[in-house]
Amino acid sequence: MTQTYVDLHCHSTASDGTLPPAEVVRLAALRELTGLALTDHDTINGVAEAAAAARSAGIDFITGIEISAEYAPGTMHILGYGVNPESTVLRDLTATLLGGRDDRNPRIIARLQELNVAITMEEVEIEAKVPVATADGGEPKRKPIGRPHIAAILLRKGYVNSIKQAFDKYLAPGGLAYFDKERLSPHTALQMIHDSGGISVLAHPVQLKYTNDAQLETVLKDLVDHGLGGIEVIHSDHDQKLVEQYTGLAKRYDLVTTGGSDFHGTNKKDIDLGTARGRRIPRAFFDGLKEAIAERCTA
Ligand code: AMP
Ligand code: ZN
Ligand code: FE
Ligand code: FE
């Protein structure tokens, strides 16, 4: 059988990507991917559109979500795959995560205003394309507003020369307008993903900013003890050495290996869908993940 490729980590306009879900799928087809998982931050609102587009395009699809957990000194992101969109636990989870953003974003904007940056919360909502009403006139779907939306405005208005500079100067830890958001503990995050019918995967372990391998392994082991199902091995932040190291850890702890680009459209200009640091993600990763989800559902 010929080798084909997939992408298991990407973002759409349902969170802080710049392409709508169906457009992400269209790009996946253009890149000749045979499998895709959409992993927007804190929401699955994009997956119905993406799943429908994937069906038409003949691309296999897995539902996903990416959530941030409490962790220092780096960031801990946990991917949830195969979560059930109808699950009440999932609904609670996304509502909690959006609440954390509602508390944080106005503080960032207020601080920016104090710094004489001309920006309003309303502009940020427009930037994030927060819908005012649904097509059928129902309650508008809430949407996670993230720092990349704020960064895009700072860039457009000329306060910074790049998205990266917006983070370095204002939005990242140590920046002039940095505020953290309320996060779930890693154990609660895992539990809620599992209770939503999903498999949990530690995203881009390098971003934990561990100081040595033993420290990484301690963190990983604790997550595994709480039901972690997989580890993201291929990612745009992982060089060859890390890919090999994480593959070794996956074997040792009997974890599913996943991989993705972390595509965000023009919010991350140097990342293309289906490619992570020049590396493609083998179809076997999709099949292994799918199998793990199926096993979980019958467990
Ligand atoms: P938020 O959801 O508001 O916490 O923002 C998280 C998003 O910001 C993710 O897409 C990150 O990849 C992006 N991000 C975080 N730090 C940086 C940075 N230093 N430069 C560019 N993007 C970043
Ligand atoms: Zn993002
Ligand atoms: Fe992430
Ligand atoms: Fe991501």
TrEMBL record:
CDD domains with a match to the protein in the record: PHP_HisPPase_AMP
Chain ranges of the Polymerase/histidinol phosphatase N-terminal domain: 6-71
A GO molecular-function descriptor: 5'-3' DNA exonuclease activity
The protein's name in its UniProt record: PHP domain-containing protein
Annotated source species: Humisphaera borealis
Species lineage: Bacteria, Pseudomonadati, Planctomycetota, Phycisphaerae, Tepidisphaerales
